[in-house]
Amino acid sequence: MVANISGVLFVFVTNMSFANMFPVVTTFSAEMPLFLREHWNGLYPHRCLLPHAQPGRTTSLYHQPLRFVCITYYMIGLRPEPEHFFLTSLIIILVANTAVSYGYMISCIAKNYQTALVLSHASHLPAAALRRFYMKPGTIPPYLDWLSYLSWFKYSFEALTINQWIDWGNETIFLYPNGTTLEVDIGHAVMEKLGFDVSNLWVDVGAMFALLVATELWPFFSS
C-alpha cells in the first residue's frame, strides 16, 4: 500500500511538472528574432515580453491542476477527508505554476531553440533524480544533496506524502508464529521508513512558494 501511494504521488508530481514545463521552454528563443527587431524599433521595452507571452496562464494553471486532482484523487482512493484533498490540490497547483515559471526562466536564459531544449533537461534532471522517491534522505552524498533543495520535486513529493500519511492512526499487527499483537502508528512508521519529518509539511509548501516567486521574478531582474 505504501508503494502504491508513493507511486501515485510520484506520477502526480512528474505529470504536472513535465506537462507544464516543456511546452514553454522554447517560447522566447523561438520568438527572439521578432522580439529583437520590434524592441530595437522602439515598439516596447523588453520587460513587456514576459507578461504578454503567457496569456490565460492565471486561470489555466489553476483550474487545470484542480481538474486533474478532482478526477484522479478519489478514483485512486487517496485520503477521503476534505482537508487532505484540498491540500493535495494546493500542492499540485504550486507544482504546475513553478514548473511553468522554471520553463520560462530557462527560455530567457537560452539564446536559441536547441540551447533551450538542452538546458531544460540538463538543469532539472539531476535534481529530479535526487527527489525523495528514488533515494532515501540521508543516503545522498553531501556534494549532490544540495541540488535537491533547488528543485520543487523534493518539496512537493515530501509534502504530498506527509499529507497522505499524517494522523493515519494505529493498526493492530499480528506477529507470527507466537500470535501476539502489536499496536503500530502507521503514519509514523511510514514516515520513519521513508525518512520524512511530519513537521516539514508547511516548510515544504513554503519552499515551493518561494521557488515559484524566485523563478517568476528572475527573468525581470536578470534582463
From TrEMBL:
Q: Does the keyword Transmembrane helix apply?
A: yes
The subcellular localization recorded is: Membrane
Q: Where is the ABC-2 type transporter transmembrane domain?
A: 4-165
Provide the alphabetized UniProt keywords.
Membrane, Transmembrane, Transmembrane helix, Transport
Transmembrane regions listed in the UniProt entry: 7-30, 85-105, 201-221
Drop me one GO molecular function for this one.
ABC-type transporter activity
Q: What is this protein called?
A: Protein white
The organism is: Chionoecetes opilio (Atlantic snow crab)
